[in-house]
Protein: Major facilitator superfamily (MFS) profile domain-containing protein
Organism: Atta cephalotes
Amino acid sequence: MRTSARTSFHLLPPLRKESPQTFSRRGQRAKALMADYGYQWSSSKKGPNQSEPIRCLVTGAVLLVATGGGIPIGYSAVLLPQLSEENSTFHVDRETGSWIAAVHSLATPIGALLSGPFLDAIGRRGCLQLSSIPLCIGWLIIGLSRNVTSILVGRVICGLSVGFMAVPAQVLVGETAYPGLRGFLVVGSFGAYCAGILLVYAFGASFNWDIVAFYAIVLPIAAFIALCLVPESPAWLIRRKKIDKAKKALLWLRGGNTEQVLAEIELLDTSIKADLARKPVNTSFTKRISSAMSTIRDPGVLKPLIIINVFNALQLSSGTYIIVFYAVDMIKDIGNGNIDNYLAAVVTAIIRFIFSLVSCVLLLKMGRRALGIVSALGTSLASLILAGYLIARKEGSSVDVYVLAVCLLFYVGANTLGLLILPGLMVGELMPLRARGIGGGCIFFIFNLLLFFMTKFFPMINSLVGTTGIFTIFGICSFLEAIFIYLALPETKDRTLQEIEEYFQQSNFLWITRTKMKRENTGVPTKAESNCLIPLSECK
């Protein structure tokens, strides 16, 4: 199987068992490439095998960003109940409360769209550092707020920042990961995201809402400092013709493995030149819009765009984020005042965090499709059981409360296992490299627009159909999600992005009607494929 020019270095397995002739041949090509840019290559021996801890350091910096991004999501769950208490500084009604919860999601897609141009202009690391600044400002405004208007302003600024950081965080991790660890590392950011929700729930159970806002400033500051310790993405550096910096970044990331760096520089440059050759040279805004629309209409871009957006719509309808935004209020409705609402919310956040870590491990063992179907069916089952028990429960029975609590925790765990974490992974795996910027921006824009409407109108729908009706809707939508995953979602585990892109060039839309590739007899790479960085035809 050949690897086309668009294959990117960070999607390929590490070098092992290649002949000296192969390295020599590719090393000479890489040296010639660097000479074309006016750089001299100083050869060095292979350094210590420290690339894995180094990639963990990069991931750790991104995880701090993700944790800071999860706190604003869960903040409304502790803010709104406190503002409804009698001793609150000021009070909000249901309509105003829905705006406080939803306005964050309205601002997030704007931040996601803004991140596209900045992603190419200042780099992935630069975008993440820049996003930390408005996040600190937003929390400071909320902490000092004494009226609803200032809280709304702070929520908007936080939403812009969270949207701005989403795509750069995934891209930076993806561009330093090998295929075998790509899912683990990207989904790890969702574990950190869940940790942020857990932190804000825990702080909200112990402190007043303004104190919680001040505590939230610590994480973006820590993330900014941590990002100063890691290099910029080598792919972005080479695209900007900063070859020397790219070489240093790759040497740092690969633990001093000179041979691998030579090979990756060559592959990166070839890939980037091929992408640039596809793009028309123009400066007018109209032509840029036309070029972007032309890119989106490409079947290799349009198909994954549709799949991810449909998946996201069904995921949101299954209650994945509604339970985060309104956790305390929903638990209050379910428990009928017989349980500690804040403590129960913290427990749901703990379950969410634990299952996000479990999903990281399962992604190394299970395919994306299997994990998604299990998660969707589990969510559907838990939702419908919970709805049925709400209908049949006896008034004043303490046993009922515990049964409902178990159902709720089962729902949160099953939902987190696949439905929560898969969309972010899909953006990095299904979208081709040439369209990841514009495609990722569009996906996050549509996702957060849908999230805004669902968050804004949830209180109204809840008043119409009640908690029982809400969980019935969650159950039905989760079941539809399972059917959609079975029919349309392609399996991406242990496949290079080039293979995934080739799949989307087929005429079919449904995965079950695909033309199977030869390697699908096993579903995993052959030993030769796992050990090669270059096309198989060149392996000795």
In short: The first helix runs from residue 20 to 36. The two ends are 14 Å apart (CA to CA).
